Amino acid sequence: MSGVESALVEIVGERNVLTDGDAMSGYLVDWMGRYSGIADAVVRPRTVGEVAAVVKVAAAAKIQICIQGGNTGLVGGSVPPATAEGRRRIVLSTARMTDLDAVDPIGRCVGAQAGATIAAIDAHAAVHGLMFPVDLASRDSATAGGVVATNAGGIRMIRHGNTRAAILGIEAVRANGDILRRWSPLVKDNVGYDIPGLLAGSEGTLAIITRVLFRLVSPPLATVVVVAALERVADALALIGRAREAGLAIEAAEFMTHEGVDLVAEHGSRRPVCAPAPYHLLLEVSGAGDTETAVVDLLDDAEGIVDAVLEPGPARALWKIREGHTEAIARATTTPVVKLDVSFPIRSLPHAIAELQDLPGHLDVACRPILFGHVGDGNIHVNLLDVPAEAADTVTEAVFGVVDRLDGSISAEHGIGRAKTAWTRLGRSPIDLATMRVVKDALDPQGLLNPGVLFG
Ligand code: FAD
Ligand code: MLT
Ligand code: ZN
Predict the structure, then answer these.
(1) CATH fold for the domain made of 223-325
(2) 15: which DSSP letter?
(3) Nearest C-alpha to atom 14 of ligand 1 is from which residue?
């Protein structure tokens, strides 16, 4: 790469072109330790001008560019491919692009550079009594560019929608180095295609997001957090429905099974707070009146409740039981977890969850399912532990078979990345997929951006 390397050094400085194996290693393995890749260099630009200049150098030399934000993605899209395939490639990290613009408290929006973390954006908004509407347990590392590129869902989606719904404007660098800037705080602005909406969920395959103008929301009035131990999945759905009927706003509705709660107790930092029961629901609600009394009344009238604990929000200790799942699962096994993220029509959830829990009995391979997720959105994270490597596709297909039969989605919020490219046909028709390919080829004709992601 030497000619190219000196051009890159010229743009971002010597300290920000990493070529040494040790210096690059953290950028080449994903959060789960499941995907690792090969690159000739890691390049860390600071400004949109530097990103554009790096892309121009790479495009002229046909060098592939793998884009990385906080590297918390769960589908392998944040790291380069595992084989060189005769291609030169760089990882472009947004780690140094962390600027935040001043909050606009009247327009209720803020601009953030792609590498700013979700926690930093939220803390910045909080100074003005506002809140970033997207929240996820990876908030301290996940970045603005990453949540937009994956169209992340998270725990507040039930209240405020996914990341796409939070975007007012975007700045991005196209595969030829052109800077695209659709930047306006206008809430209503219908002039043609929704380019920011297109880049949301594009997983770095269409352009490099460099800055995002995000909508902010008011934080909820006083909230109450309940963890309820339940006999049946249907009891969880009924409780959510009754909370709505009582005029409470659902701020979050998260599902756990006793296996997951026990795993967090064993490998995480939080002991169970309720009596043992097959299922647990974490419900966070807000309301204008005496929310705590409204919740107590709700629990008194509800069916199937084995036990319940409630606390005024934010109730971080209660939340740890739910948010500790991902790390506890990662610690509980030495073999890679088969990590799936599926959704179902909400009315099918009791049936779907029963089928998923029954899988070990129907499969000829070892597998320990831990299910949890954003039940209010119909989104269940299916984590299959202790699966022999050679059986990973078999168990994945068994889960996707349930998804297919019940009209669900093979990717609710994490995206396709490298992990699920073989199965996109289960989520989109041949014409849909061909249309996506037309868009990809138009915006990235040399196929340089995030090779192997989304399209395989
Ligand atoms: P990365 O992991 O670095 O990248 C993810 C993808 O986005 C890659 O394809 C990458 O190439 C692309 N990308 C990153 N930055 C850019 C950019 N600037 N321009 C173009 N493409 C880019 N996800 C959810 O949806 N909901 C959750 O509730 C949730 N909870 C999580 C909890 C934990 C503990 C962990 C570890 C992960 C969780 N995730 C969740 C997954 C992950 O945090 C999200 O996918 C997040 O959006 C990734 O952001 P990131 O900055 O880490 O992106
Ligand atoms: C979550 O909701 O905690 C996540 O999406 C992470 C996971 O699936 O492990
Ligand atoms: Zn999730």
Answers:
(1) Alpha-Beta Plaits (3.30.70)
(2) G
(3) 146
